[in-house]
Design brief:
The chain is an alpha/beta fold. The chain has a single domain (15-215), classed as Nucleoside phosphorylase domain (Rossmann fold), CATH 3.40.50.1580. Helix content is 37%, strand content 19%. α1 (43-56) packs parallel to α4 and α2 (91-97) crosses α6.
Amino acid sequence: MIPQPEEPTPAPLNVLVCFAVREEAKFFKPKPHQKVVFTGMGRNNAARVIENRCASHRPDLVVTCGFAGGLNPIFSESDVVFDADTNTPLESKLNESGAKRATFFCANRVAITSEEKLRLWRYTGMDIVEMESETIRDHCRDLGIPSATIRSICDSAHDDLPLDFTLLMNNHQNVNYKKMSWLLIKSPRLIIELLAFQKKTTDAAQALATCLEKSLP
């Protein structure tokens, strides 16, 4: 019998993994074909970074990741939720990892209170709120690049955030840590609440990293 030639191993996809801030990626260890970029918070920052990166080096797949807030009460803290284009290899892997399919609302500001989240849920009908993914994925669709949103919930629909992070943003929609320090000096009780919230974000970052390591091609 004449031996048949082996099928060539397909080359790994070049994956661009987008996070808004470094805290979201603290446990994620990218493989060589996975490039991480930090966009900053909000639509404007996300648009600028994704346009520049796709123009300089076109990826095969773009994933927008990070933290998110729950609008639909069925989702809990540290749940990993996703939405993926049908032409990506991600959906089955995400389902196997325990991630849950959801719908996403891309807001212009941080949703602070449970009452605000309830209003957004009723108005939009969406499950999850965040601030960058729609902009990133719209640009990818314009270029014909497959994309997905993968987010970990750090505050559920029932949770109030310890403070209005929108008030701490600078003109570039990044946190102004001088403002935060001054706020903590004026209101020391916030330190305990922020430490409790930091524990939630740490758990969410760990859950997200675990999911990404299992799911990314």
